[in-house]
């Protein structure tokens, strides 16, 4: 088409501008005698990269007489908008996937035309440029009164062109103007009169004309289009053809029936709505009961620092212990105590990490940490069994010890091993064997320290202090270890963008490539190229919820809040039945400082009607939502109007420590573990710890969130781990992406937050150490 055009317009200046979400390059060419070789060579050599925004910025600084916009009309980083040029605009596309309505409207608004290169001959398309099409420019009311006339703006005059509106007087005379480039070329005058007859087809024509105009920006006008379509029985992108055989069909689809059926319709519709209201209220009552129990937990939480300090002053005592199951089995009593201790080798000098400490006859157990320490809650008459490969098993009768702190000494096994204990996820098994080639420990991993993480040089640290407390948090940086990152790192900084374009040819269809490379450039301080690279995810598949979720969250991390908001709203449109999507948008509003919007978004999750399957999958999310909502209400009371919130759901609950994880994949089970300074692990099957730690309910079917809370932190180190237990789903995006939020001084003026995203690659091991928190209280 370019060659054909310049055969006709042979001597002309041309400026080529490339764009994605901004104008990226600009170059001028002088066409002489129709020679386009330099122009075409330049266009063929262009590198196209990044997602797209179509907006006002494209019309700025243009001084030419005519503009050609080559685009598929899909703005995947923002909503489409109609913007104005001073020159005629021709929108041009050859894509099989194109937003034709938008490109047509944009061209029409700017006295141009939409040219579809795949549907018309070049000669016919060029004729549209050479000889502009006449247009309807509007009406003038000579006398009488009319309203809501469509088209309400400039429109192409095609075959069967019609104008529809509402006549408000008995008669009206209209002048209809036609022209080119905004200039009136001809007019005609018509007189219309009212009629007592009701013409349903005329009403439908008027509604269709209005829908046609609204559909130029269909997404922004979805609600109005849907209401018109339902009222007048018109099929649109948001409605479909529905066969309405009886009254129940009208009630089911909430479509107003003919007048003869309306009384019964409204009665049945009220009954249906009353039932929905009751379901929502019943669910709110269940949430309130859980919230009240949560408040009670918070109010009863005690500061255990003094108790723990006193216990640590007492050294562990050596107690009598027996070898190899000599104590008879017994029935355990209900009353329990916590036993603390240390395990050493038989020389009494070296500690033994990884020793299994199990309540005999049960699957309840822990493992000693790197310093040989353990703590376990057991019945007052419990029998503890200590096992470690290469050492004789030991038993301890808790009923006979006079102290809660004990020292256990393990003796080496001199003969060949006869038994190996294999510890698995939520179960324990033992097997008699003759030979041992290898021993595999499957992690229930009360304290496995080898994690599936790449080695890193530095750590992200945040220190905060006040006169009484010092907190140091550490999140372990993530590296995917991908080959393409090694290749990027192998070249100089000035060569990395070129290297990226080279690598893109090989990995262009891999979402994780853009995610990793964007993270790499961002960590290197190049935020501009990082955003450009990341925005390619919007080009890959804007209908894939996993891609959208990761794109939105990474945009939020990059502080590209405008684009992130668009993506999260797109995700809600795509999957309105998942409460996590509304939470993601609320978290974004928090980062933007739009606290009222965030609170409204949170509370909408409490107030909404959710499908029974969704409640079954994610019904535990409400408490976490209320914690995050109340956090904002507590910190910003003057900025937030709570008048529309049920006062029963408002309660301040400040915490010393709060840790939250969520992830991007459905049908995936990831468990949060927090190991406190007395070596007690808080996780899904041990939700309440001695020092007051509390774990939320387990999300086994995807997304999370899971939450750990501690009102009064004791001194020492808190280790944060996750157990990637399993997934029954293949992901286009690749490995599951986990987010970890670590809060200290939650819900008060000194609140600090750290965030880390990492991808979990389940290769043999499933336990990942995410970070740690060192908590110290001044004497």
From TrEMBL:
Pfam families, A to Z: CarbopepD_reg_2, DUF2135
Domain DUF2135 as annotated: residue spans: 713-760
Entry-linked PROSITE patterns: TPR (PS50005)
Keywords of the record: TPR repeat
SUPFAM superfamilies noted in UniProt: Carboxypeptidase regulatory domain-like (SSF49464), TPR-like (SSF48452)
Keyword Chaperone: no
Positions annotated as TPR repeat: 545-578, 579-612
Protein's name according to its UniProt entry: DUF2135 domain-containing protein
Source organism of this protein record: Flammeovirga aprica JL-4
Lineage of the species this protein comes from: Bacteria, Pseudomonadati, Bacteroidota, Cytophagia, Cytophagales
């Amino acid at each position: 088409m370019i060659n054909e055009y310049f055969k006709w317009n042979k001597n002309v200046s041309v400026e080529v501008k490339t764009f994605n979400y901004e104008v990226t390059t600009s170059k001028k060419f002088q066409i002489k005698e129709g020679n386009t070789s330099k122009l075409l060579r330049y266009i063929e050599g262009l590198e196209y990269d990044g997602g797209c925004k179509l907006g006002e910025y494209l019309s700025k600084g243009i001084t030419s007489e005519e503009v050609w916009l080559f685009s598929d009309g899909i703005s995947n980083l923002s909503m489409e908008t109609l913007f104005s040029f001073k020159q005629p605009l021709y929108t041009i596309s050859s894509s099989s996937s194109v937003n034709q309505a938008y490109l047509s409207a944009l061209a029409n608004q700017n006295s141009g035309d939409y040219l579809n290169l795949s549907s018309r001959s070049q000669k016919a398309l060029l004729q549209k440029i050479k000889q502009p099409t006449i247009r309807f420019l509007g009406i003038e009311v000579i006398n009488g009164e009319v309203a809501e006339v469509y088209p309400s703006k400039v429109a192409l005059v095609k075959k069967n062109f019609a104008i529809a509106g509402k006549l408000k007087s008995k008669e009206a005379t209209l002048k209809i103007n036609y022209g080119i480039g905004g200039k009136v070329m001809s007019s005609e005058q018509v007189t219309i009169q009212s009629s007592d007859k009701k013409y349903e087809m005329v009403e439908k024509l008027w509604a269709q004309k209005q829908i046609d105009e609204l559909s130029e920006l269909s997404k922004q006008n979805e609600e109005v289009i849907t209401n018109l379509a339902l009222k007048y029985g018109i099929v649109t992108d948001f409605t479909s053809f529905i066969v309405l055989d009886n009254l129940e069909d009208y009630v089911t689809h909430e479509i107003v029936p003919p007048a003869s059926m309306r009384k019964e319709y409204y009665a049945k519709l009220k009954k249906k709505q009353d039932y929905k209201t009751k379901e929502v209220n019943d669910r709110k009552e269940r949430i309130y009961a859980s919230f009240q129990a949560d408040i009670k937990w918070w109010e009863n939480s005690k500061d255990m620092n003094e108790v723990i300090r006193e216990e640590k002053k007492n050294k562990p005592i050596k107690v009598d212990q027996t070898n190899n199951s000599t104590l008879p089995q017994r029935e355990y009593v209900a009353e329990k105590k916590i036993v603390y201790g240390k395990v050493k080798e038989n020389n009494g000098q070296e500690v033994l990490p990884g020793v299994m400490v199990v309540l005999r006859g049960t699957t309840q157990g822990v493992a000693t940490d790197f310093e040989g320490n353990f703590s376990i809650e057991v019945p007052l008459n419990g029998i503890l069994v200590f096992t470690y490969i290469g050492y004789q098993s030991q038993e301890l009768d808790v009923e006979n010890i006079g102290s809660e702190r004990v020292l256990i000494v393990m003796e080496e096994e001199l003969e060949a091993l006869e038994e190996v204990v294999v510890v698995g996820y939520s179960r324990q098994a033992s097997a008699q064997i003759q030979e041992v080639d290898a021993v595999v420990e499957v992690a229930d991993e009360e304290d496995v320290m080898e994690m599936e993480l790449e080695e890193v040089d530095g750590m992200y640290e945040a220190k905060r202090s006040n006169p009484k407390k010092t907190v140091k948090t550490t999140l372990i940086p993530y590296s995917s270890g991908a080959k393409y990152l090694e290749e990027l790192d192998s070249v100089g900084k000035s060569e990395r963008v070129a290297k990226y374009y080279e690598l893109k040819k090989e990995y262009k269809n891999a979402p994780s490539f853009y995610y990793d490379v964007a993270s790499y450039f961002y960590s290197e301080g190049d935020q501009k190229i990082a955003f450009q690279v990341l925005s390619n995810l919007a080009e890959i598949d804007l209908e894939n919820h996993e891609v959208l979720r990761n794109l939105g969250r990474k945009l939020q991390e990059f502080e590209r809040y405008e684009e992130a908001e668009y993506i999260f709203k797109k995700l809600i449109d795509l999957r309105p039945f998942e409460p996590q999507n509304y939470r993601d948008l609320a978290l974004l509003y928090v980062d933007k400082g739009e606290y009222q919007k965030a609170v409204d978004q949170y509370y909408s999750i409490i107030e909404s009607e959710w499908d029974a399957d969704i409640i079954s999958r994610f019904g535990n999310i409400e408490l976490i939502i209320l914690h995050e909502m109340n956090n904002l209400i507590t910190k910003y009371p003057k900025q937030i109007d709570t008048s529309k919130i049920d006062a029963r759901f408002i309660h301040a609950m400040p915490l010393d420590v709060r840790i939250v994880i969520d992830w991007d994949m459905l049908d995936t089970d990831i468990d949060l573990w927090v190991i406190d300074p007395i070596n007690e692990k808080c996780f899904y099957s041990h939700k309440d710890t001695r020092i007051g730690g509390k774990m939320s309910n387990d999300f086994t079917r995807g997304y999370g969130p899971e939450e750990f809370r501690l009102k009064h932190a004791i001194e020492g180190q808190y280790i944060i781990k996750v157990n990637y237990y399993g997934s029954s789903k293949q992901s286009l995006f690749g490995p599951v992406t986990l987010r970890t939020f670590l809060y200290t001084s939650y819900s008060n003026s000194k609140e600090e937050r750290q965030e880390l995203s990492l991808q979990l690659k389940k290769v043999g091991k499933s336990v990942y150490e995410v970070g740690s928190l060192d908590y110290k209280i001044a004497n």
